[in-house]
Amino acid sequence: MTDATILDEEHEAQFGDYFALLKPRVMTLVVFTALVGMLVAPVTLHPFLGFCAILFIAVGGGAAGALNMWWDADIDAVMRRTSKRPIPSGRVTGRDALSIGLALSGFAVVMLGLATNWAAGGLLAFTIFFYAVVYSMWLKRSTPQNIVIGGAAGAFPPMIGWVAATGSVSLESVLMFALIFLWTPPHFWALALFMRSDYDDAGVPMLTVTHGRRTTRRHIFAYTLVLAAFAVWLGLTTAGGPIYLVTAIALNAWFIKGAWEIRGRDEEAAEADSYLVEKKFFRFSLLYLFLHFGALLTDAILRTAGVIA
């Protein structure tokens, strides 16, 4: 049976359906962190080139999302959290998603290279490849380390923004990468604690499925400790500043406290209150990165204005 046959004829694809393929909520984080990475860099891009750079990074991130949805359509159809996505709901064909993903990937990489430098374009190409092929096609279905290693795909945008401005990688860009990379496992494992049945049904070897919730809880706490160290370290570099450092210390103290509470929970207590603590930790983790990168941006603005050194 072809994609055209599978497509629900009662739901002719609209612009919003194609836009949903690009994972706009994820793209928001990609755009914001890439923008911050570019603005905290010691080299200033012309505003027009900076706008173009962020636009093409966003398009590249959306392209990776479309390729992910194309490959994961079978899994998405099973999981409650993703069953209403454009392909499993029958609004867009897998063939269209693949075509859009490939076309946008090529466009974004070439245009970013032309607008800024080919190091940034190459890094964007590698990011798309890593998310679509290394994570989606290999890691996600083969190992409980899927989120740990695969988190690199979402961690590249601030580094790409930095490289777009400077043409090279530095400690600051690596630490911004590490902030997102180390945040990803506790963020998704917290979700997996109260959404385990979805991963069971889809056959995805999330840590909660392969090693159980108790092990997952310990891993969340361990990764949170390492994350906190790298988050504070970033504040001691030229990219950081007083606003970021205070913000990082406060946010990570709270994050560690939440991870410690999760670590000590037993399943009876968690089921009794419908995973209230885990859901609270997950919701806070959604704000965690935006607040960190927002603080970096604030310091950059104050530094430009001469308020801080």
How does this model look, in words?
The protein has 309 residues and is an all-alpha fold. The chain has 2 domains: 167 residues, UbiA prenyltransferase (Tetracycline Repressor, domain 2); 140 residues. It is 77% helix and 0% strand. Helix 11 runs antiparallel to helix 14, helix 11 packs antiparallel against helix 17 and helix 14 packs antiparallel against helix 15. The radius of gyration is 20 Å and the shape is flat. The termini are far apart. The N terminus is likely disordered. Keywords: Cell membrane, Heme biosynthesis, Membrane, Transferase, Transmembrane, Transmembrane helix.
List the helices and strands and how they pair.
Layout: H1 3-6, H2 15-20, H3 24-39, H4 47-71, H5 73-78, H6 94-115, H7 118-142, H8 146-150, H9 152-155, H10 157-166, H11 171-194, H12 196-202, H13 207-210, H14 212-235, H15 242-263, H16 267-272, H17 276-304
Helix pairs in contact: 3-4, 3-10, 3-17, 4-6, 4-7, 4-10, 6-7, 7-10, 10-11, 11-12, 11-14, 11-17, 14-15, 15-17
Please supply descriptive tags for the structure shown above.
single chain; 309 residues; mainly alpha; Tetracycline Repressor, domain 2; 2 domains; 17 helices; disordered N terminus; EC 2.5.1.141; transferase
Brief characterization of the structure:
The chain is 77% helix and 0% strand. With 309 residues, it is mostly helical.
Secondary-structure-based class equals mainly alpha
Point out poorly predicted stretches: 1-10
Give me the Rg, rounded.
20 Å
CATH class of the largest domain: Mainly Alpha
- How many distinct domains? 2
**N to C succession of SSEs:** HHHHHHHHHHHHHHHHH
Query: What do the pLDDT scores average to?
Result: 90
- Overall outline: flat
Q: Give the distance, in angstroms, between the N- and C-terminal Cα atoms.
A: 64 Å
| Chain oligomer state | single chain
Q: Estimate the helix proportion, in percent.
A: over 70%
Number of strands: 0
What about the largest sheet? none
Task: Tell me which CATH architecture of the largest domain applies here.
Answer: Orthogonal Bundle
Q: Mind telling me the CATH superfamily name of the largest domain?
A: UbiA prenyltransferase
The CATH topology of the largest domain: Tetracycline Repressor, domain 2
